[in-house]
Every structure is written in C-alpha cells, then in structure tokens.
Design brief:
Blueprint lengths: L1 H37 L7 H4 L10 H21 L1 H6 L6 H30 L1
Helix pairs in contact: 1-3, 1-5, 3-5
C-alpha cells in the first residue's frame, strides 16, 4: 500500500515537473534563437557585453546555446529515464527532491534567458 502511494505521488510530481521543464526548454530555445538573429557572431562575445571582463573567450554560439542544450538534455533524461529516477532517491521526501530539481532547472532557465537578452541588447 505504501509503495503504491509513493509510486503514484512520484508519477504525479514527475509529470508536472516534466511538463514545466518542457515549457522552459521551449522558451529557452525560442529566446536563444531569436537573440541569435540579432547578436553579433564573434569569436569572443564576453568583452562586448562587459568591457571590464577579460575572462576566457566565449563564442556567440556557446554563449547563447549552452543552457538550452543542457536543459534539453535534462528534459530528455527526465522523460526517458522515469523508471530509473523513480528508484533513485536521495531524500525521503519526494516533494523536496522535485523542488530542488525545479530550483536548479529554473536557475538554468533564468541564465539562458538572461544571456539571450544581453545578446539582443548588444545587437540592437
């Protein structure tokens, strides 16, 4: 009885998380592709965004599309690895696990949108 309840709760939380992660992936890709139309395609975009930054070179391609690629990979792992994820537990409370996963996914989504908006402002 307890296992069935845990399984049902996992399925509900997993479906909710996967749906919202899919929406975030779609918005991330759309924003990055839209920004790619306006961003200057250069080998090192960081000094253009922040002239005081003399960090490592980062091309426009990796600057705009690294977070959408990572989010897409996480989304596909979430979809196709549902059975493995159901058995793999770090905490006793599944809601906390999904909350942590959602916070990490949101942070990556935010960084993706932030980079795309920065590139759009640079190109305009």
């Amino acid at each position: 009885m307890d296992f069935d309840h845990d399984s049902g709760e996992f399925s509900r939380l997993h479906n909710l998380f996967t749906f919202h992660l899919g929406v975030a992936v779609t918005l991330s890709w759309l924003t990055s592709l839209y920004a790619a139309a306006y961003a200057p395609w250069v080998r090192n975009i960081r000094p253009l965004l922040d002239p005081s930054n003399v960090g490592p070179a980062e091309s426009t391609w990796s600057y705009l599309f690294i977070f959408p690629v990572v989010l897409t990979t996480a989304w596909l792992i979430s979809i196709f690895g549902q059975n493995i994820l159901a058995r793999f537990r770090l905490l006793k409370n599944q809601a906390i696990e999904f909350g942590i996963a959602a916070a990490v996914a949101f942070a990556m989504f935010y960084l993706s949108i932030d980079r795309a908006v920065a590139a759009m402002f640079l190109g305009m």
